[in-house]
Amino acid sequence: MRRLGSVQQKIPCVFLTEVKEEKSRKREFQQFQVVATENLNPVALEADVYSAFATEKLDGTCCYVTDYKGHPYLWARLDRKPNKQAEKRFKKYQHAHRSSKGFTWNVEDDFKMVPETWIPAHRVKHHNSHPVPDEHGHIPGWVPVEKDNKQYCWHSSVVDYESGSALVLRPKDDDAFLELAAVPLVKLREQTLELIGTNINGNPYGLGSKKQPIHCLVSHGSIRIRDPPPVDFQQLWAWFQENPEGRVEGIVWHCADGSLVKVHRHHLGLTWPEKETLFGGRPVVIRVDETSEEFNLSKDLFTSFSRINGQRFSRIRDVQFNPERIVHFDHPDVSPEVA
């Protein structure tokens, strides 16, 4: 599959948007909604969205793999945000002008401190050697995920730096089913991925449980929309509402020039998550081989998956580590196995 664009910045909506003074469906404490109009965003038109590659937008938290201490490392998303005084000034300006255009930041004084290891995301503009905030008043960036940082414990659970591996969920055999595998971090270098699982964003895909939490990474752009609807407001709305393939959080279009545009169900006034998500219902096979000489069993999650290596599940939400479980697999091309 061709290499698709990485997610380093906030992705614009495929439609022009407007702000409605109604409580947000997406964010509990937000007293306004950003909704799509029926007019296509000029950015999408310029990038020829009609010829773009449509992929599923997954509901997790964004990660990045790049070098740290001379080795490929997983990095967590950390946007640098304004302090209380600057945020108040910014909101007041936005309310008065209905836009953030023309607002002046003092980057040295207006923003909260970040760890010394923090780096700005790609394409963040700079002025006088300082990164410039985006239209939302944030400076997108990354921090390396280290073993002893409790704030990123779920990120840390999906990587083993001693073996140089990460737990990745990816399509196999022309998307017939998914494979959860231990993938060398070096093969993920400069990719962005979505961390999903039990303790991420309310776990819309039903992975694991409190007793046995399950987390994994999914490379951005790897989960294609098999028969995407036309890029049209009404047809997209109907697809999300009526098509079984539309039980997804949203669509991200990867354009030929590297641009990314998206639509989220909330942009169209629709709810998320669905009770039964399309992704959570996909079949999966486990490929985490404990017999590999390079594999290090110091990670609980890696160890747990290695014990069910080769086991197949009819839905990823059914994955569990009970060795007595009989596994049923519905795909005709893959035989069922007994654990």
Describe the fold and architecture:
The chain has 339 residues and is of the alpha+beta class. It has a domain at 80-139. Helices cover 13% and strands 26% of the residues. The chain contains 6 helices and 18 strands. Strand 4 and strand 5 form a beta hairpin. The radius of gyration is 21 Å and the shape is globular. Residues 325-339 have low confidence and may be disordered.
Question: Can you tag this structure with a few keywords?
Answer:
339 residues, alpha+beta, 6-stranded antiparallel β-sheet, 5-stranded mixed β-sheet, 13% helix, 26% strand, disordered C terminus, nucleotide-binding, ligase, RNA repair, EC 6.5.1.3, RNA ligase (ATP) activity
Question: Any idea what the shape is?
Answer: globular
The whole-number mean of residue pLDDT values reads 86
Indicate the radius of gyration in whole angstroms.
21 Å
Number of strands: 18
Provide the low-confidence segments as ranges: 325-339
- Order of strands in the sheet with the most strands? 6-9-5-4-13-14
> Beta-strand level of the residues, as a percent range?
25-35%
Report the biggest beta sheet as strand number plus sense, adding barrel if it closes: 6 strands, antiparallel
Cofactor: Mn(2+); Mg(2+)
Enzyme class: ligase
Catalytic activity: ATP + (ribonucleotide)n-3'-hydroxyl + 5'-phospho-(ribonucleotide)m = (ribonucleotide)n+m + AMP + diphosphate
Keywords: ATP-binding, Ligase, Nucleotide-binding, RNA repair
